[in-house]
């Protein structure tokens, strides 16, 4: 089947085959990666190689730390204010459920200034902002760069001046090249484009580390992870190993993020063209804010949407149901989704349209 799940989601077949060949014994270690001590030479090589590959693939400058954490992207909603609030206030743009959840946690620890929101339009677009809307005294500006549920994406980052930009890239990291220097902190749950659930990656500018209140629990302080190369306690070893394989696939099989972007653009264009030409399906998102990773669409009739999801599943196109908060359909076409999956989906959509258009 082709799996259009929003996450956890498809992994490249190349990665799964390699992991399966190494499942019982990694190299000549006599052990599975799952059974290895995290302090062993083999695992140290795995985590260091994973970090080096991520640095190469994303072109991460030396003044940024890469941290491997647990707790999901959701724990970052709390860790970010715990670690970055000094003056006690942050600016936020509300682009949906995930930024609202981040605002809820921020409000427990400091002042949350809502700068812009697209809530009134069902989060169908990215609010445009200008530099003078942001508080130059804020500790950071927070955005969710790709909105998994609604299918919107920032194609131009807000100009926040000297205030660090903090961004949730859970559902778009590694989909295209980015300029890391534009951000103070980037975070992502791994379970979409990086690997399996259980790993969260934080990329943070060094000067933002070490500002947490001294009462902050060690496990919630970025400094603990930075000072201990993410090995203060047992890291999610198997998820890090798979993330390393995903990065190897990106470097050696795909050829890097420029190539990945070209492939992703082609897949997304195919699906959006089908939607734009359709008389049955509509894409509710503003054209200039469309996501390449999560593509939402509706027929306008909830019963027909349900029928589509059911028949698609029977045709081997699974997990196309939209998020429970918005309904309709959503095709998540992360890096690992082959073009054949999108071709099969668009052919199925055309066939469904011809059978169901009144
Ligand atoms: N942020 C975004 C953009 C997401 O799509 C998700 C989950 O889908 C999350 C945060 C929450 O991630 P987690 O379940 O790892 O906490």
Could you describe the 3D structure shown?
The chain is of the alpha/beta class and 358 residues long. It has 2 domains: 13-254, Aspartate Aminotransferase, domain 2 (3-Layer(aba) Sandwich); 256-356, Aspartate Aminotransferase, domain 1, CATH 3.90.1150.10. The protein is 36% helix and 15% strand. The chain contains 9 helices and 13 strands. The chain has helices at 13-21, 41-58, 72-84, 97-109, 222-227, 237-254, 257-277, 302-314, 339-356; strands at 2-3, 64-69, 89-94, 111-117, 140-144, 146-147, 152-153, 165-168, 185-189, 200-205, 294-297, 317-318, 329-332. It has a 7-stranded mixed beta sheet with strand order 2-10-9-8-5-3-4. It has a two-stranded parallel sheet with strand order 1-12. Strands 6-7 form a two-stranded antiparallel sheet. Helix 4 links the parallel strand 3 and strand 4 (111-117). The longest helix is centred in the C-terminal third of the chain and has 21 residues, at 257-277. The model has no long low-confidence stretch (mean pLDDT 98). The structure holds pyridoxal-5'-phosphate (PLP). Pyridoxal-5'-phosphate binds at residues 6-7, 72-74, 98, 144, 148, 168, 170-171, 189.
């Amino acid at each position: 089947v082709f799996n259009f799940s929003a996450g956890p989601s498809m992994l490249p077949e190349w990665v799964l085959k390699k992991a399966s060949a190494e499942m019982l014994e990694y190299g000549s270690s006599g052990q599975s990666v799952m059974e290895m001590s995290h302090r062993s030479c083999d695992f140290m090589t795995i985590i260091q190689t994973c970090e080096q590959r991520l640095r190469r693939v994303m072109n991460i400058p030396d003044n940024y730390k890469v941290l491997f954490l647990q707790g999901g992207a959701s724990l970052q909603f709390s860790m970010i204010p715990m670690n970055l609030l000094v003056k006690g206030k942050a600016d936020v743009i509300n682009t949906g459920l995930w930024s609202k959840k981040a605002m809820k946690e921020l409000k427990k620890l400091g002042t949350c200034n809502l700068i812009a929101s697209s809530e009134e339009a069902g989060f169908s677009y990215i609010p445009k902002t200008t530099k003078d809307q942001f508080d130059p005294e804020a500790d950071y500006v927070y955005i969710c760069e790709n909105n998994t549920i609604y299918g919107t994406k920032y194609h131009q980052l807000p100009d926040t001046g000297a205030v660090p930009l903090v961004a949730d890239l859970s559902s778009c990291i590694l989909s295209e090249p980015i300029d890391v220097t534009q951000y103070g902190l980037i975070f992502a749950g791994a379970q979409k484009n990086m690997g399996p659930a259980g790993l969260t990656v934080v990329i943070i500018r060094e000067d933002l580390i070490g500002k947490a209140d001294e009462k902050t629990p060690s496990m919630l302080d970025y400094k603990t992870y930075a000072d201990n190369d993410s090995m203060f306690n047992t890291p999610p070893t198997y998820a890090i190993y798979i993330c390393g394989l995903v990065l190897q696939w990106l470097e050696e099989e795909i050829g890097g993020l420029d190539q990945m972007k070209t492939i992703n653009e082609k897949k997304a264009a195919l699906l959006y063209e089908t939607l734009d030409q359709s008389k049955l399906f509509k894409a509710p998102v503003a054209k200039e804010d469309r996501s390449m990773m999560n593509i939402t669409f509706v027929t306008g009739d909830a019963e027909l949407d349900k029928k589509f999801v059911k028949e698609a599943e029977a045709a081997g196109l699974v997990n196309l149901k939209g998020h429970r908060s918005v309904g309709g359909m959503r095709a998540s076409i992360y890096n690992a989704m082959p073009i054949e999956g999108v071709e099969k989906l668009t052919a199925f959509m055309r066939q469904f349209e011809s059978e169901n258009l009144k």
